[in-house]
Design goal:
The chain has helices spanning 15-45, 52-77, 80-99, 103-131, 137-165, 169-173, 175-178, 180-186, 197-200, 204-231, 236-257, 272-290, 293-301, 305-308, 310-326, 337-353, 366-391, 397-426, 434-454. With 463 residues, the chain is mostly helical. It has 3 domains: 14-193, MFS general substrate transporter like domains (Growth Hormone, Chain: A), CATH 1.20.1250.20; 201-260; 264-463, MFS general substrate transporter like domains (Growth Hormone, Chain: A, Up-down Bundle). Helix 1 (15-45) runs antiparallel to helix 8 and helix 10 runs parallel beside helix 18 (397-426). The two termini are 35 Å apart. Residues 1-9 and 195-200 have low confidence and may be disordered.
């Protein structure tokens, strides 16, 4: 890693690199929130409303694989090829989605884009470590954080307007040319070589093992969703095949994830393992619900796509508020209690959401309720990062941070996968889906309250 003997206090020498990083992260963040807003319109036009959950879950499942591969690949080979590969996959995926004639082609594009996004997000953090001296990194990370907030405010409204008034294809196609300038700004700054096995602590054989684990987990998520999406409506041999898919998916997920996370994570062992697990549980509850809120507002309350997307903007706002609250030094609470409080807020919000699904309840009441729900996410998710570093032994911070990101991606994929599978199995295009939304969010709210109880398992292990 380059050494900086006298790092300047000004960011002026790094503005080109900062602009490249921030622009790429902004485009990835825009893709994530904008597509969720446009997806109801996309699936309606491509005659695939029943498969709406796959549109989001395939992106996140592929992103999971990219996250698993990126860290070790950057350590061993440098950042040049991970970033180049990520850019090619992300750009190609956007192009395929924008030109997709049928929903199956769009899913293939979403998978490519997700894998590229996973590589890029992790590689950008390594680029920051390579290029910027320690004194200015906090300021750089503040720009990175802003890169996620701005698309959350602007993206849903813009994507909804494009989908309703122009074409949803521009939500994907506009990203491709916008990715070229930041790519040109970054490429000269990328390392073409990594450290030795002794320096990185990761051999090429271990990288291959991590790759196989990532493939297994990704395949498991998709297989699980496929099986669940069919088991509810299938009969006879078809039901048996769908049930076998569910079992195989679970086996692949467990087999793929278990070697990549601290021992005891899947069993909620007290301390760090529970913290890592909590990251995925919170991501699954929140993202799995949020991905269907625009569809509910459109189908049950008649909102246009741009107004339905305001719920996603409210989620970003509430998340930011929760993150700010948990950082206040005046709050002298044990850190693990933020899990309990956050999950309780989410549970109450999701149960309250069931009362607003159909008229005469106003769909506009969903927006403040979702802001409140996202406050709980901000409290909890920031606390997972703090506790992970606090519980990590010296030299294990990187490995545990990678496990935290893996849990996040896996939880999001499973959350969207489960809700998407339920929707695929029981969607009723004639009678409406109010009852289905009610059942989905009652189950999610009850599960969140159970997670609140599990939050006490995140207490530190007695010395």
């Amino acid at each position: 890693m380059p050494q900086h003997d006298a790092a300047p206090a000004s960011l002026s020498p790094y503005l080109t690199t900062i602009s490249g990083i921030v622009t790429l992260i902004t485009l990835i963040a825009f893709e994530a929130v904008a597509v969720s807003t446009a997806m109801p319109v996309i699936t309606r036009e491509l005659d695939a409303v029943r498969q709406i959950g796959f549109g989001s879950s395939v992106f996140i499942a592929a992103q999971l694989l990219g996250v698993v591969l990126a860290g070790s690949w950057c350590d061993i080979s440098g950042t040049r090829w991970p970033v180049r590969t990520g850019l090619m996959l992300f750009g190609a995926g956007q192009l395929i989605c924008g030109l997709a004639p049928v929903f199956g082609v769009l899913l293939a594009g979403r998978a490519l884009a997700g894998g590229g996004a996973g590589l890029l997000v992790v590689a950008m953090y390594v680029v920051i470590a390579d290029v910027f001296p320690g004194e200015v990194r906090p300021r750089v990370f503040s720009f990175v954080s802003a890169a996620w907030v701005v698309p959350g405010i602007v993206g849903p409204a813009l994507a909804g307007w494009l989908a309703e008034n122009v074409t949803w294809r521009l939500v994907f196609l506009l990203v491709v040319p916008l990715a070229v300038p930041p790519a040109l700004a970054l490429l000269p700054k990328l390392r073409s070589a990594g450290g030795s096995s002794e320096q990185t602590g990761v051999s090429r054989a271990q990288l291959r093992t991590r790759a196989l684990c990532g493939v297994a987990a990704t395949a498991g998520v998709l297989t699980l969703q496929w099986g669940l999406g069919r088991v509810g409506a299938a009969v006879g041999t078809a039901w048996a095949l769908a049930a076998a898919g569910v079992v195989l998916g679970l086996v692949l997920v467990v087999a793929g994830v278990r070697p990549l996370v601290p021992s005891g994570t899947l069993l909620l062992r007290r301390g760090l393992p529970t913290v890592i697990a909590m990251r995925g549980l919170f991501a699954g509850m929140f993202i799995g619900t949020e991905s269907f809120i625009p569809l509910m507002l459109i189908s049950q309350h008649g909102f246009p796509a741009d107004r339905a997307g305001l719920a996603l903007t409210g989620g970003i706002l509430g998340w930011t508020i929760g993150t700010y609250i948990q950082a206040r030094p005046s709050l002298r609470l044990p850190r693990h209690l933020f899990f309990v409080i956050g999950a309780s807020i989410i549970g109450v919000s999701l149960l309250g959401l069931t009362l607003l699904i159909r008229p005469p309840a106003s769909g506009w009441l969903v927006l403040p309720l979702w802001v409140f729900c996202a406050v709980g996410m901000g409290l909890a998710m920031a606390s997972t990062s703090v506790l992970t570093l606090g519980y990590s032994e010296a030299g294990q911070e990187g490995r545990n941070s990678s496990a935290l990101q893996l849990s996040d991606a896996l939880g999001s994929a499973l959350g969207i996968g489960l809700t998407g599978a339920a929707f695929a199995a029981w969607h009723d295009p004639v009678g409406g889906d109010a009852a289905l939304f009610t059942i989905m969010w009652l189950a999610a709210g009850g599960f969140a309250l159970l997670v609140a109880l599990a939050g006490f398992r995140a207490r530190p292990v007695p010395a």
